[in-house]
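Homework help board

Subject: predicted structure for assignment chain

Our instructor gave us this sequence and asked us to write out the predicted structure in token form, then describe one feature. I got the tokens but I'm not sure how to describe them. Can anyone check?
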Amino acid sequence: MSLFGEPQKSPHRDIERYIRREGDSPEDWYVGVTENWIARLFSDHRVVDGKTLYIVRKCQNNEMARQVKAALLELMCDGEQVGQSNKSIFVYAYKKTIDTKP
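My token output:
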């Protein structure tokens, strides 16, 4: 399933299932919304591709992305309620490690 094609139908469910499948507590995961998930994950948060667990899902619009993030925060994932660009349609989650920020 391409991240750059059609938006996923159930991004919240996809991300929650991924976190649970990995057998970790939601508190061990950080979630966010962005328009450039590559820069956000690999530069800003220092996620290491192939080493750090992460998932990215494309939403239909910014409102849906914010709703997905809010639902994941209610699940007790870590993350901040800061303003994102109205172009932010990607929701991401990664497992926090000693290498990632935060």
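Reply (TA_rk): Your tokens look well-formed. For the description, you could write something like this. The helical segments are 11-21, 37-44, 62-74. That's the kind of observation they're looking for.
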